[in-house]
Amino acid sequence: MINANQTGPRPAAPPPIRLAVIDGRSEPAMRRRLERELRTATVAGAFVLHYQPRLCLASGAVEVNEALIRWPDRKRGLIPPNAFIPIAERSDLINLIGAWVLLEACSEAVSWSRARLSVNVSARQLQSGVLPIQLAMALEQSGLPPDRLELELTESMLVDGSTDTLLTLSAIRDLGVGLALDDFGTGFASLSMLKRLPLTVMKLDRSLVRDLPTNREDAAIVRAVIETGHAMRLTVVAEGIETEDQRAFLSGIGCDEGQGYLFSHPLPADQLRSKLGLTRS
Ligand code: C2E
Ligand code: MG
Ligand code: MG
């Protein structure tokens, strides 16, 4: 088992990604080609999920594994999500990809002997109204108990604070599914808006963690955010923990859980299962 307090040698870096940039700034022709390739990949179910553990900082126990999508390509290697999710979000593809991720991840997590699953959700899935149906189908088909699943949402998805968004999130929460606010600190969420949302987890963005513990401003912000999160009865998670100093500092100021390369890079499902001993006997 991974133990936050006995981290051992750092894991090897993942293989280099042989793709420079395919994002919103690419040439229109390249973007169109990429969208065509993405459509073909979606129909063929050509994606894979890697999983990154999230640990209790006090005990070192793995609490949750986060599903992170990759697109394996013969020529370009393993394409990371930031290179294709924004393109999928500009079309209907994101709903197809989102449904696949939910079902695939839930079907994997149902075989784990312990630890919950978290899945990233796109704004389009929430705003187009398809999320509750996708979720119900994934839980039904996989047999994963709802309280073993958590959805990760970003601040930008929630800032409108619309009644529809609130009702959808409350219905999901009523099922027993957890709701995490991802990348906290990068958007413009107001505290009063956060208070109205049925959240269970707050994930501090790694930009707030990167310069800890030496940067005094960041240290003060992180302390205040942890206190605020706890006042709202949220589990507070720090993302992007890469050093033992960051882990010790965050644990010392009461941060509940952590995720980052110090503990583990995201891993393919079979490697995660054997590393954590997750397979049921
Ligand atoms: P995220 O949900 O905030 O995921 C964390 C990202 O930080 C992951 O990048 C992870 O590999 C990386 N990371 C984890 N620990 C460390 C660390 O210690 N140092 C550094 N430098 N990085 C770390 P990844 O897998 O490339 O994912 C990027 C983003 O793509 C995710 O950010 C998430 O917003 C999005 N994404 C991933 N999978 C999905 C998906 O299935 N659906 C949707 N809609 N978005 C996804
Ligand atoms: Mg996430
Ligand atoms: Mg994040």
General description of the model:
This protein is an alpha/beta fold and 281 residues long. The protein has one domain: EAL domain (TIM Barrel). It is built from twelve helices and ten strands. The chain has helices spanning 28-44, 85-89, 93-109, 123-127, 131-142, 155-158, 163-174, 191-196, 206-209, 216-231, 244-252, 269-276; strands at 48-56, 62-73, 77-79, 116-120, 149-154, 178-184, 201-204, 235-238, 257-258, 267-268. The chain has an eight-stranded mixed β-barrel, surrounded by five helices. β2 (62-73) and β3 form a beta hairpin. α3 packs parallel to α5. It is globular and about 50 Å long. The model is unreliable at 3-24 (pLDDT under 50). One magnesium ion binds next to loops.
Overall structural domain count: 1
Straight-line distance between termini: 16 Å
Largest sheet: 8 strands, mixed, barrel
Would you identify the regions where 5 or more consecutive residues have pLDDT less than 50?
3-24
Strand order of the largest sheet: 1-2-4-5-6-7-8-9
The top level CATH class name:
Alpha Beta
Topology (elements, then pairings):
Blueprint: H1 28-44, E1 48-56, E2 62-73, E3 77-79, H2 85-89, H3 93-109, E4 116-120, H4 123-127, H5 131-142, E5 149-154, H6 155-158, H7 163-174, E6 178-184, H8 191-196, E7 201-204, H9 206-209, H10 216-231, E8 235-238, H11 244-252, E9 257-258, E10 267-268, H12 269-276
Helix pairs in contact: 3-5
The structure holds ligand C2E and magnesium ion (MG) (2 copies).
Care to give the gist of this entry?
This protein is of the alpha/beta class. It has one domain (47-276): Alpha-Beta Barrel (TIM Barrel). It has twelve helices and ten strands.
